[in-house]
Design a protein that fits this description.
There is one protein chain. The protein is an alpha/beta fold. It folds into two domains: 168 residues, Rossmann fold (3-Layer(aba) Sandwich), CATH 3.40.50; 200 residues, Up-down Bundle (Dehydroquinate synthase-like, alpha domain), CATH 1.20.1090.10. The chain contains 15 helices and ten strands. The strands form three sheets. The chain has a six-stranded parallel beta sheet, with helices on both faces. A two-stranded antiparallel ribbon has the order 6-7. Helix 9 packs antiparallel against helix 10. The chain is globular, with a radius of gyration of 20 Å.
């Protein structure tokens, strides 16, 4: 057996830890200007002013880029790079989009190169990127601990920039920042984190070190996500889900994902849909097929969840989704597409790494079956 465990950023966990941001920023070196990536909702909530004021009081110039919505696009990265001119530090505050933009810009602003220069590992990342702080406000993507960053390229297709140079130098996990997340987003993001942990612990790349994080993430999220959804102000439950999401990020950073993410990325290639929802739907339709592999890792994952065997995982997943109120429905925008269209996206080159890492060989016929299950779901509204 051979494996490696990639570097894990410094992590600060605690309620209201955001209040210590300025001190944490100064601990990273001679920081004179910080560029903050934060969505418009968080800016309007007052968090933007609170953060910039604290940084300026500490002698750090602070600017905010908030001109994005939904998943990051190439233009968002380019615009954020302009805002970040002259910065020593990138701070991403928000969901995976904000964190990914901040991490990418830490590289592009340092080198002066466009994001497309690094897409799909076309060129190595700069060895001296800007310092980076990642502060997730959704417990889902695990981007705060990952070397992978996703954005939509000029043709709208998802592209990846990855490398250790893009990792955060510091992660701040403050569960209080997740309390305002609506129940549906809490559920979708939490399921995404759970699936990160599950897939990383059971795919072809799974190894003992990755499973240390993946298994604990599964335990934390499965036990606390329903409470976080149904009792939004429960900071303890929120914190455990947030920590589980972070651990899930470590797991996928080391071991990657599998078929559920192939499905969700393919869905996003057709029409706008929240990544967590798409992944949860893809996970539920593919898990019965996956559990038939009955591998040692799948059975170990079952035991982590308090089950006896792999065959019990699919109904467990459905119960977890039910307890979080997740509706099995896709946006009406998918009406213009067919099963063939979705299956085609699942077979696209950019989605093959997730297909290949799945512990069970995935045939084209399997993809057709999953696509059929997704496209025959009811439509939202």
């Amino acid at each position: 057996m051979q494996f490696s465990l990639s570097a894990i950023p410094d992590i600060k966990f605690g309620a209201d830890e955001i209040n210590n941001l300025a001190g944490h920023a100064k601990s990273l070196g001679d920081i004179r200007k910080a560029a903050i990536v934060m969505d418009g909702f968080l800016v309007s909530s007052g968090l933007g002013a609170r953060v910039t004021s604290a940084l300026r009081d500490a002698g750090i110039e602070a600017v905010i880029y908030s001109g994005f919505a939904g998943e990051p696009k190439l233009q968002h990265v380019r615009d954020a790079s302009q805002v970040a001119g002259g910065a020593d530090l990138m701070i991403g505050i928000g969901g995976g989009s904000a964190l990914d933009i901040a991490k990418i810009v830490a590289c592009t602003a340092a080198s002066g190169e466009d994001a497309m220069h690094y897409a799909l590992a076309a060129n190595p990342l700069p060895k001296t990127p800007l310092k980076k702080i990642a502060i997730p406000t959704t417990a889902g993507t695990g981007s705060e601990t990952s070397a992978t960053n996703i954005f939509a390229g000029p043709e709208g297709k998802k592209l990846w920039i990855w490398g250790a140079e893009s990792k955060a130098d510091l992660v701040i996990l403050d569960p209080v920042l997740t309390v305002s997340l609506p129940p549906n987003l809490t559920a979708w993001c939490g399921m995404d984190a759970f699936i990160h942990a599950f897939e990383a612990s059971t795919n072809r790349n799974a190894h003992p070190a990755g499973k240390v994080f993946g298994h604990e993430a599964m335990r934390l999220i499965a036990a606390n996500l329903p409470t976080a959804v149904n009792d939004p102000g429960n900071v303890e439950a929120r914190g455990k889900v947030l920590l589980g999401s972070c651990y899930g990020g470590v797991a996928i950073d080391n071991c990657g994902t599998a078929i559920a993410h192939n499905i969700s990325h393919a869905m996003a290639g057709l029409a706008p849909i929240h990544h967590g929802l798409a992944t949860a739907l893809g996970f539920e339709v593919s898990t019965p097929w996956l559990a038939e592999a009955d591998t040692a890792d799948l059975n170990e994952a079952a035991r982590v969840l308090g089950l006896k065997r792999a065959s019990e995982i699919p109904p467990f997943v459905s119960r977890l989704m039910d307890s979080c109120g997740i509706k099995r429905a896709i946006p009406a925008a998918f009406d213009k597409y067919t099963v063939i269209d979705l299956a085609g996206e699942m077979k696209a080159p950019e989605n093959q790494p997730m297909r290949r890492s799945t512990i069970r060989d995935v045939s084209d016929a399997d993809l057709d079956t999953f696509a059929q299950a997704i496209m025959t779901m009811q439509r939202e509204g």
